[in-house]
Amino acid sequence: MIADWGLWEWILAAACALIIGISKTGLAGLGMLAIVMFANLMPAKLSSGFVLPMLIMGDCVAVAAYRREAQWGMLLRLFPWTGLGVLCGYFAMGRFSDREAGFFIGAIILVFIAVHVWRQRRAAQQRAARPAAGEGREGGTTGEAAEPEHGLWFVATFGIMAGFTTLVANAAGPIMAIYLLAMRLPKMQFMGTAAYFYLLMNCFKVPFMIDLGLINWASAKGNLLLAPAVLIGTVIGRAILHRINQRLFENIALLLSVAAGLNLLYRSWSG
């Protein structure tokens, strides 16, 4: 497949690799664009294996850049559920078509976004109501917590879906973006936590991808040729992150997640 690529295919692949690098250190969620573009260069399942080593390259740079920002307590709660999701994805591979997988994952992403927006609006209403609830009472205000609570069901749901989607379609980016946005992390902690999560999960996936025949010597050679573009992208991404504020960062991450979900639904319907 890669051996048949012409000049334009390699240019498109290099652009995808550059986008992967930018997404790992700067614009969370942008990586889904590269994954969609790669899926136009080769069958979707093959592209999931081809892209994985480049994702790991970007993860390594992101970990080196943001290693002090990771929130390990949050990660340790998530990892067992994500591992379970990866196993579910491994056993599910081959049992449904790319179209079915795209529709399911796209729908899940949009549902998660809707729930996230609803929870944030409810929290904002609670914050607005707190001063009124405490009016006329000595010692301050009463009312519920300003931020939504994140119980076991919340962590388990996001963890399992992140693991499942990352193996089936390398589509955990939007799921994790929504999860980390819900945790209200500053942008540097967001990127540091995401960097370790993706690195460990992507490395965990490698044996499964090799067993499924989706990573081989031919794909590895292509990855080596595209590695410089990934590394250049990580430099660009880090520069972008330092130049945008927290609100813009969160809005970009949310909008890219919406775009990813809609794109998956569109491709599943039009395919």
Automatic annotation (TrEMBL):
The chain crosses the membrane at residues 12-39, 46-66, 72-92, 101-118, 152-182, 194-218, 224-241, 248-266. Its main location: membrane. Keywords: Cell membrane, Membrane, Transmembrane, Transmembrane helix, Transport. The keyword Transmembrane applies. Signal peptide: none annotated. InterPro entries: TM_pro_TauE-like, TSUP. One of its GO terms (cellular component) is plasma membrane. Coiled coil: none annotated. Pfam families: TauE. It is found in: Cell membrane. It comes from the Bacteria. The keyword Transmembrane helix applies. It is a multi-pass membrane protein. PANTHER family: MEMBRANE TRANSPORTER PROTEIN YDHB-RELATED, TRANSMEMBRANE PROTEIN YFCA. Belongs to the 4-toluene sulfonate uptake permease (TSUP) (TC 2.A.102) family. This is Probable membrane transporter protein.
